[in-house]
Design a protein that fits this description.
Chain B: InterPro entries: HATPase_C_sf, HATPase_dom, His_kinase_dom, HisK_dim/P_dom, HisK_dim/P_sf, Sensor_HK_Regulatory, Sig_transdc_His_kin-like_C. The structure holds 2 protein chains of 2 kinds. By secondary structure, chain A is mostly helical. Chain A contains 14 helices and no strands. The chains are: A mainly alpha, B alpha+beta.
């Protein structure tokens, strides 16, 4: 609060505190207009429901708590949970100031929201899809093993999302490193050896190949020539569908997940068309993801490769 | 208006730790129905917040609060006055008080809320397929980590294979409804667990599988947390009182309550015979409950460290109370219950509650085993060294050999089917002796029986 640069030697302590409070207030006032405008424009949007916002906040706190708990353990603090909870708010605030991190959490919350929505309205299981189930029984042991691992990871994901948790080991490598270095930069009070031990411990537990998204991607890639069966929400389940669509369109999975939001109808239609689905097949997906929204007319006149090209030319290729 | 203004409907006082130390009934009642005590930390969340704010700010604060009390939703206007420097507490004044009926969740909402809570407190979850075979499992408590690992290792096998289900006697495979809410024992964990099964899929619940949650009422204690280095504690000597009695009481009470509802046809018209069946269920439940009470009492009196809390009491008063409590039951059997005349006293030193328990047992027996139309009398007598209350009946009496056995544990003297446990007299005598007294019987076959409770007299009287 006092390190925002407004502190000057000519300020008395109370002046410094109030001046920095004033600067903070100014910052908030500057964002009120755009934020309110955004909320009004996306009235009823799933993007900013209380549930999604709470989920994002919870995930930020959880990531913070995990690093702090590891730090407390390395330092030999007896009540590591208490230490973590005490410091989590400040660290989480810093973490979520990173727009890439924030965007990733947001996408996970939206994916979970879509999954639970489809489970309720269409009995599409968020974990055990018909496709995944058949793969776990595949005669090829490697396939079955991979499918089982993906299934387990997906089951954990669903449970974590209910608790608004995001384990460090599920973060994409770049965000994992960013989170670590952010924590490091703030753990100034800790001894060097404690910091080193914590980092080592956290790195050891991190296996990018074991992430849910990696496993799903490998399952999606395994099908090779027959990805069409995966491009059905009903058959593949939301998680595998998103991974398969991202793979088929060569797009960022997070971006594809965001495309299931009603403000991104065009992106979803282009992605599905770009992945080679017929307008009828696209309509089948739309009726599940966006009941009540009609597939843009004339899709059949848009060749698949043109759709893919349009998508690739979009300004947005990643979140943040 | 200040804290002493007479226009307040109710007043209260808190201390530096926001504990309610004094309150008029309006506030006290709400405090209790919110689960609090007096003195005790303010249990009314909205009021606690107001008091805390006013105390910290050091300035008078008025505002409305809303709280869910026993009678419904209370909306009140409160004014909080922090005391001056010497006394860090606050005074509370209630200026307006409205109670409206609480809106209740419908069953579906209540179910959803219950499930969310269950998910929140569960310390192990697992995803099962439609045959209840484990697909994935994860533990959040150290004493369940081994179980989760085993479940994942044995993926493809039923979850129930990895745990013990003490209350379930059915052959495998067990229908999920029988396992939902079942108590579970986990190897390596000293805690008692409850399983929650959530069926997934539609239209047939469970067709896509289940979610399994294990939760426990007990937190993982520090001792248990270190259990891997320490040898586990020897199992408790007694099972019923410490472990089972609280668990059994609730479901049996529910059985009784529901059976009573059916018996009295509260939920609608019903054929006579079904109402009678319900009456049988209710009375069987009551017997069961009484038996559990006896068994847990037994453990208490048999414990090595059992003591009573003696007080100055009047046996005449206790005897009259016992007679009052059992008057209805006596009347049902057309038995005249004669209590000591009002004003007669027998001062003694004993624990009131325990003496009442003994007398209720003695008088209850007398009513149960005496012929209809007879008389049961409670008489006081005293001597230098004892205060005595006698329970005299006109029943069949006891032979010398029966008198010798009647105080033994589980002794029924050949009776059965009346709901007695054979523990009442045994417990009563143990209680009497623990208080420095004794319980004896005088009887002859055909001439009724006299049970005499002797207790130390009160020398001050």
């Amino acid at each position: 609060m006092t390190d925002s640069g407004t502190t000057s030697t000519s300020y008395s302590p109370i002046e410094a505190v109030l001046a920095s409070e004033l600067a903070r207030g100014d910052l908030v006032l500057g964002t009120v207009g755009p934020m309110l405008g955004m909320l009004l424009a996306s009235h009823d949007s799933a993007l900013f429901t209380d549930e999604v916002v709470a989920g994002v906040r919870g995930m930020g706190l959880h990531v913070a708590r995990q690093m702090l708990t590891a730090q407390a353990k390395a330092a030999g603090v007896e009540e590591s949970c208490v230490f973590a909870v005490e410091h989590a708010d400040a660290l989480a605030e810093a973490l979520t100031a990173n727009l890439q991190f924030l965007g990733h959490c947001h996408v996970l919350a939206l994916e979970h929201r879509l999954s639970t929505h489809l489970e309720r309205s269409n009995a599409i299981d968020p974990v055990l899809s018909p496709l995944l189930q058949s793969l776990t029984g595949a005669p090829d042991a490697e396939t079955a093993q991979l499918a089982k691992a993906a299934l387990g990871a997906q089951a954990r994901f669903t449970e974590q999302q209910r608790r608004t948790e995001l384990p460090l080991r599920e973060l994409p490598p770049s965000l994992f490193e960013q989170a670590l270095s952010l924590w490091r930069s703030r753990a100034t009070g800790a001894e060097r050896s404690v910091v080193e031990e914590t980092v080592e411990h956290l790195r050891e537990a991190y296996d990018p190949q074991a992430r849910r998204v990696s496993l799903l991607e490998r399952v999606a890639g395994m099908i090779g020539e027959g990805p069409r069966s995966m491009l059905s929400v009903e058959h593949a389940g939301v998680a595998l569908f998103l991974s398969a669509l991202a793979l088929a369109t060569n797009q960022d999975r997070d971006l594809i997940a965001l495309a299931t939001n009603e403000s991104q109808v065009g992106r979803l239609a282009l992605a599905l068309r770009g992945a080679g689905l017929s307008p009828e097949q696209i309509a089948k997906q739309f009726v599940l993801v966006h009941p009540g929204v009609l597939v843009p007319e004339g899709l059949d006149s848009l060749p698949s490769d043109r759709a893919a090209a349009l998508l690739a030319a979009s300004d947005r290729q990643a979140l943040g | 208006m200040n804290a002493h203004s007479p226009s307040y409907l109710a007043r209260g006082r808190t201390d530096a730790a926001d504990r309610l130390i004094e309150a008029d009934e309006l506030i006290a009642g709400l405090q209790r129905s919110c689960g609090g005590e007096i003195p005790g930390v303010l249990a009314i969340p909205a009021l606690l917040e107001r008091v805390r704010q006013a105390r910290i700010a050091g300035t008078r604060l008025g505002g409305s609060i809303e709280a869910l009390g026993g009678e419904g939703i209370v909306r009140a206007w409160v004014e909080v006055f922090p005391h001056t420097a010497g006394d860090p507490g606050c005074s509370i004044g209630i200026a307006d008080w409205q109670v409206s009926a609480a809106t209740r969740d419908d069953d579906r909402q209540a179910g959803a809320r219950h499930l969310e809570i269950e998910r929140g407190v569960a310390e192990l979850w697992a995803r099962l397929d439609s045959e209840q075979r484990v697909l994935a499992a994860e533990a959040r408590a150290p004493d369940l980590a081994e179980l989760a690992r085993k479940m994942e290792q044995n993926a493809g096998r039923r979850w129930s294979d990895s745990v013990e289900l003490p209350g379930v006697v059915h052959e495998q495979p067990i229908h999920w409804r029988l396992l939902d809410g079942a108590s579970v024992r986990v190897p390596g964990s000293s805690r008692e667990w409850t399983a929650t099964l959530v069926p997934l899929g539609a239209p047939e619940p469970g067709q896509s599988g289940f979610e399994l949650y294990l939760s426990s009422d007990a937190p993982l204690s520090d001792v248990a947390r270190r259990s891997d280095v320490e040898t586990p504690k020897a199992p408790a000597r007694h099972l019923i009182g410490q472990n089972l009695s609280p668990v059994l009481r609730q479901p049996i009470a529910r059985i009784i309550a529901n059976a009573e509802t059916i018996r009295t046809r509260l939920a609608g018209p019903l054929a006579e015979e079904y109402s009678n069946y319900a009456a049988d269920i209710a009375s069987a439940g009551q017997h069961l409950l009484a038996l559990i009470e006896d068994l847990s009492d037994l453990e208490v009196v048999e414990a090595d460290d059992f003591t009573t809390a003696p007080d100055e009491i009047d046996l005449g008063d206790v005897a009259r109370r016992a007679a009052g409590i059992l008057a209805v039951r006596a009347k049902e059997r057309d038995i005249e219950l004669v209590a000591p005349p009002a004003g007669s006293k027998a001062p003694a030193v004993a624990e009131f509650r325990r003496v009442l328990q003994i007398l209720l047992n003695l008088v209850g027996n007398a009513i149960r085993y005496s012929p209809e139309g007879s008389e049961v009398r409670l008489e006081l007598s005293g001597a230098e060294d004892r205060a005595r209350v006698s329970v005299i009946d006109q029943g069949a009496g006891l032979s010398a050999e029966e008198q010798a056995r009647v105080f033994e544990k589980f002794e029924r003297l050949g009776r059965s089917g009346d709901g007695g446990s054979g523990l009442g007299l045994y417990i009563s005598r143990r209680l009497a002796r623990a208080m420095g007294g004794d319980l004896t019987v005088r009887s002859e076959p055909g001439k009724g029986a006299t049970f005499r409770l002797d207790l130390p007299p009160n020398p001050k009287s």
